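Progress report, Aim 2. The chain analyzed during this reporting quarter is listed below.
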Amino acid sequence: MPYIGKSPQLGVRSRFYFTATGGETSLSGASDSGATLLFTDGNYVDVSLNGVALVAGTDYNTTTANTIGGLAALSASDIVEIIVYDVFSIADSLTTGGTVNGSLIVSGTTTLNEVTLNKAVPGKTQTATLSSNTELDFDTYQNFILTLTASITLSNQTADISDQAGQSGFMIFIQDSSGTHTVSVDSDYTAAGGALNLSSAANAVDLVPYIIQADNKILLGTPQLAFAAVP
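Predicted structure tokens for the chain:
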């Protein structure tokens, strides 16, 4: 498909004019300006005669290298315009360095040997209201703000989270206006002191740090009780 618009510092097409002396059925070599007609793929060539587009395969062919052939015999002073579009690949400028201006979205796994961040980068946080047992999504979220409307259990992971080993963050548990809700943990979790003992007061806010040690091994730190209060 022809490129539309300007491409700074990259020539994406070349234009050649041939003025017929009469009788030509093919064109090649030097154009009117002296530039030599060159192309690597006939699919990337447009040809027009006196301003009228010609049909590839019908009005002309490109079966001979760097030649527009199969033309009906040209008349003297006929002008043939040939546009050749370059086929090129964009250089991977980030292999050895480069600057990306604007947003950059990377899909898939990216390996970085060293990263310098000029701004704070918050982990993605899930905010949810819980009324039943739940499996936390450590693959999507790093932090969790969870409002309790009933007593719940943090369920075991059904997916392998070994890739998240070393991930750390926090869980905030907020009691609703009735309070008294408890949080139990399944065997994937190891709570400091053997149990996750949270505040029971209405609207209490407790902070629990965590780190993933390995698959099926999530370590919970000592809760900071009544860390804050919901206004």
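The CA atoms of residues 184 and 196 lie 7 Å apart. The longest strand covers residues 204-214. These observations will guide the mutagenesis work planned for the next reporting period.
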